Amino acid sequence: DIVGLKDFADKMIYEMSGGMQQRVALARCLANDPDVILMDEPLGALDALTREKMQSLVLDIWKKTGKTIILITHSVEEALLLGERLIVMAPRPGRIHKEYNLPFAELGVGADLREVKRHKKFGPTRDEILNMIWNMEEEIIGGMNEVVSKRQGLLLKKEHSALEMASFTVQSDI
Predict the structure, then answer these.
(1) Which of 41, 122, 134, 155 is deepest in the core (most CB within 10 A)?
(2) Is the link from the previous residue into 91 a cis peptide, with omega within 30 of 0?
(3) CA angle, 5 as apex, 28 and 75 as ends, to 5°?
(4) Residue 121: which of 106, 136, 134, 110 has the closest Cα?
């Protein structure tokens, strides 16, 4: 009973909470005994308390089974807590921007995750990654604004030409 649902074996999935449904998904995955588990935004829809409990469960499963877990998330804190290796991807084209080797997953096994978040390197690492992502977003938005400005300039020129042509046509009809 690695996912903690033994007492709910007779329940239908729709009768379970979101956290329990995620545990069922983990149990289904583990039943196949894979070498690698891919988790794509698995905890995103959960409330904060359930999410924290599920993060602890993922760490426990990782430690007990020795499985490789690849977790895809947009939550920097979650990535820091659950990953030994964190890869920040850059967009357009998608590529590895920076890679981190982290101690926090190992520290979090069987521990209070809120204590792990108080680790002296957790906050600065989180801030570094958030700033990096923020700067990448700013570059994308800046580039998009430049493209929009160029397009708007072309539209203004086209509209201006259309207005001139309309004026010319009106004038020529008079």
Answers:
(1) 122
(2) no
(3) 65
(4) 106
DSSP 84: S
CA 5/CA 104 separation, integer angstroms: 27
pTM higher than 0.90 for the full model?
no
Q: Are 54 and 45 in contact (CB under 8 A)?
A: no
Q: CB of 123 within 8 A of CB of 74? A: no
pLDDT in tens, 59-107: 998 998 999 999 888 899 999 999 999 999 888 788 899 999 999 999 9
How does 40-61 read in b/e, with b if 16+ C-beta sit within 10 Å? Answer: eebbeebeeebbbbbbbbbbbb
How many residues are there in the chain?
A: 174
Q: Which long-range contacts (CB under 8 A, 24 or more apart) does 41-45 make?
A: 41/72, 41/73, 41/74, 42/71, 43/73, 43/75, 43/78, 44/73, 44/74, 44/75, 45/18
pLDDT in tens, 33-45: 999 988 888 888 8
The one-character DSSP state at 117 is H
